[in-house]
Amino acid sequence: MIITLDTTAQTLVVERDGQKSRYPLFSKEAFDLISHEWLRVGWSQKYSYTFTWLGRPVIQLPEDLVRIQEAVYRVKPDVIVETGVAHGGTLIFYAGLCRAMGRGRVIGIDVEVSPRNRLAIENHELSSYITLVIGDAIAPETIAKVHGLVQTEERALVILDSCHTKSHVLGELDAYHDLVKPGSYIVATDGIMQFLADVPSGHAAWEWDNPSAAAADFAAVHSEFALEQPARPFNEGEVSNNVTYWPGAWLRRL
Ligand SMILES: C[S@@+](CC[C@H](N)C(=O)[O-])C[C@H]1O[C@@H](n2cnc3c(N)ncnc32)[C@H](O)[C@@H]1O
């Protein structure tokens, strides 16, 4: 694909398979095309590895944090379950939302949390909102432990951000979707991988081996879930697609 961005003519021209499409530079279509390439270049540059939340590294794009905040505030879950802790930045982010809403707590699952990260999470101002579960997210004992921490009547919102292979994400969807009550979500993050096959340090297999593929397969056999980006609570512009590392991620329990 060839993209020609002409700031003098104020056009963006895309040439794909011998076909040319021309868009005004300041259009919704140009925004989507430029954003898509920005996401790919940013991934290669580890842009999402440059942020902290209340002192802890958080490995996310800021827009994804704002979008999930919108969903969390609407759903007001009793418990937020996240697989994939790393430095704990997202756990602290969700814990802060719980504190601000006066509702909810957070369960973080990881196969391994370093002593340094564990100490930082346990000594954080928001630590009382967080329970860590150490173990492979799809191991039966981990699944049982997490289910033991959630009451049957509680409404969970689940975020999957651990191992991003299709088979692992399918395993996590299978393991934790029952915690999600109508109106809430299970989110299979980092489906951006499908668009990174040709990016330096990307892999050809990511075209099919990615979390979005898992979410799509899951939705195909779970009619109680709809695969849809949450409606924006506010949008005075024309752009409707998120600039996100989480395309095809959002499974809403009907
Ligand atoms: C992308 S990082 C999580 C980032 C974190 N959610 C954030 O946004 O800051 C992925 C984490 O998943 C964990 N992980 C990898 N495979 C796992 C598995 N099978 N079960 C549980 N955690 C796993 C890794 O140890 C790593 O800490």
Largest sheet: 7 strands, mixed
Number of domains: 2
Tell me the CATH architecture of the largest domain: 3-Layer(aba) Sandwich
Order of helices and strands: EEEHEEHEHEHEHEHEHEE
Strand content: 15-25%
CATH fold group of the largest domain: Rossmann fold
Ligand types: S-adenosylmethionine
Number of strand segments:
12
* CATH domain class name of the largest domain: Alpha Beta
Structural class: alpha/beta
Can you give a write-up of this model?
- It is a single chain.
- This protein is an alpha/beta fold and 254 residues long.
- It folds into 2 domains: 2-45, no CATH class; 50-253, Rossmann fold.
- 33% of the residues lie in helices and 21% in strands.
- It is built from 7 helices and 12 strands.
- The chain has helices at 28-44, 62-75, 89-101, 115-122, 140-148, 166-176, 211-221, and strands spanning 2-6, 11-16, 19-24, 52-53, 56-57, 79-83, 105-110, 130-134, 156-160, 185-188, 225-227, 250-253.
- The protein has a 7-stranded mixed beta sheet, with helices on both faces. A 3-stranded antiparallel beta sheet has the order 1-2-3, with no helix packed on it.
- S-adenosylmethionine (SAM) is lined by residues 58-60, 83-87, 89-90, 109-112, 136-137, 161-163.
Question: In short, what is this structure?
Answer:
This protein is of the alpha/beta class.
Task: Describe the protein's topology.
Elements: E1 2-6, E2 11-16, E3 19-24, H1 28-44, E4 52-53, E5 56-57, H2 62-75, E6 79-83, H3 89-101, E7 105-110, H4 115-122, E8 130-134, H5 140-148, E9 156-160, H6 166-176, E10 185-188, H7 211-221, E11 225-227, E12 250-253
Parallel strand pairs: 6-7, 6-9, 7-8, 9-10
Antiparallel strand pairs: 1-2, 2-3, 4-5, 10-12, 11-12
Helix pairs in contact: 2-3, 6-7
The structure holds S-adenosylmethionine (SAM).
Residues 58-60, 83-87, 89-90, 109-112, 136-137, 161-163 line the site of S-adenosylmethionine (SAM).
